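Self-study notes.
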Amino acid sequence: MSFLDSEIWIQLMTLIGEVTFFLILGMLLAAVALAIIAAASITRGKFYLPQILIPGMVLLEGLVKAFCKLLGLDDKDLITFFITLRNTMNTKAFSETPVEQRAVFLPQCLRSAQCPANLTPEGLKCRNCGRCSVGENTAWLEKRGYRVFIVPGSTFIKRMVKKYHPRAIIGVGCLMEVKDGIDMSDRIGIVALGVVNLKDGCVETVADWGAVRDAAMLGIKHSSDPVDFHGPAE
């Protein structure tokens, strides 16, 4: 009798099958629970069990999305909730990081279609021509000690992080770009806050500059001049 026909092999396969079944069942139940918690948090505007939600959604994102759809939530609702949750969880650590160890990453799509800026190894260098709001807000951020990068993609972000080693960043972009940026920051141990654009697209998008400035001022007790952080974006 071969080993594959032996009692030991049969018992081993039975054990593996049972363990696999209970693992799958556990994952499904966990995904259902996370989807219910996320749905309740979104509909009521309050975070429930954030310490469980974040790792759970990272590990079981696909399943959680599927069950959230069954509960009437779309991907946009869930991603927006994820970004808001991460921002809330990261606010304290961001506030405690010195400004000189922070950076801001802006997408190049914010610039005017007639932008005269040139692409350099560190991204676009704004000429502050006044054709869009990037120059004014970049100057405001730099005045407060931030490194500001206007980048065409994640490759530039990784390059600048590797070169300057910021401990905390503010990432601006469309919904998925911000989520992906927060995920990437988590993997490399950087505290990240995400600000989603008010208007998406490939050209002349609109940033929520009020939210960007609010985030930038976290942990900064005094500014050199008064600024309306809640002013309307252009």
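Second protein, same conventions, sequence then structure:
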Amino acid sequence: MYSNLFVDKVNEIRDNYFNSIEERVADFKNMGKSRNRSLFIELSFCILTANTSAEMGIRTQRYINEGFIDYDLETLRSELRKIKYRFYNKRSEYIVNARFIIPDLKKLLRNRDRYYVREYLVENIKGVGYKEASHFLRNVGIFDFAILDKHIMKLLHNFGFFNDIKIKSGKDYKKYEEIFNSIAYDFGMEPGIFDLYLWKMATGKILK
């Protein structure tokens, strides 16, 4: 069903990096137990990483931290610009406008209908699409969804699973996600965890 090369690469990562990936999974589960403010800081990180590198998102999150909640718009914009974050105008607006959700984040994440939770985030928070919502949910210990960033899309396209490397709509996202999820379950993993294996394969890194 899958090429020997793909299976061998997944198994190689599982053999060599299983413990490191499990540590990251434990981090995500612990994050899901956090207070609303910490959850919002993680949501802000996921908004920031769209169309930029994970490393830049991590550096920015560490630098701004509680400022995602406490800074006014102009201060947040200025601080993002200071550390050379590229999309400082739009993303500062997205984060400030998303603050309405802070008091309800833990309650939202307790909802057992994970698809409802993701749709709520996509529909109600500007700057959050299916990838960003899936990324956030994975980072707080909900592993039901694929995080289809450019690295994953290119990797699975190169292995012949996807016929394109670009996602043009929510419908496209769900189509490719269905394929991704099927592969993940065939390897006995939840999609949000399988993503870590493929991201390691694509980039050589285990981040978040």
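Instructor comment on the second fold: The radius of gyration is 17 Å.
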